[in-house]
């Protein structure tokens, strides 16, 4: 009987450890995506706006 309780406790600890790792990965991925989106938006939006402004002379 005691070994069943130990096995259950080990599975709970293993599951808890996996959850901690998953939460850390999600947190780091969220920071990465947030930084990346800010970088993309500022660079690509400026380039897109400049290309639109250069096309403006054809529609005046």
Give the oligomeric state: single chain
The description of the largest β-sheet is: none
Overall geometry comes to: rod-shaped
Amount of beta strand = under 5%
Give a structural overview.
- The chain is mostly helical and 60 residues long.
- The chain has a domain at 22-60.
- 90% of the residues lie in helices and 0% in strands.
- It is built from 1 helix and no strands.
- It has one helix at residues 2-55.
- The longest helix is centred in the middle third of the chain and has 54 residues, at 2-55.
- The chain starts with a helix and ends in a 5-residue tail after the last helix.
- The model has no long low-confidence stretch (mean pLDDT 82).
List the helices and strands and how they pair.
Blueprint: H1 2-55
Concise overview:
The protein is built from one helix and no strands.
Keywords:
60 residues; mainly alpha; rod-shaped; 90% helix
């Amino acid at each position: 009987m005691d070994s069943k309780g130990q096995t259950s406790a080990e599975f709970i600890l293993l599951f808890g450890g996996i959850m901690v790792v998953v939460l850390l990965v999600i947190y780091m991925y969220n920071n990465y995506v947030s930084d990346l989106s800010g970088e993309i938006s500022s660079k690509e939006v400026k380039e897109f706006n400049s290309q639109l402004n250069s096309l403006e002379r054809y529609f005046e």
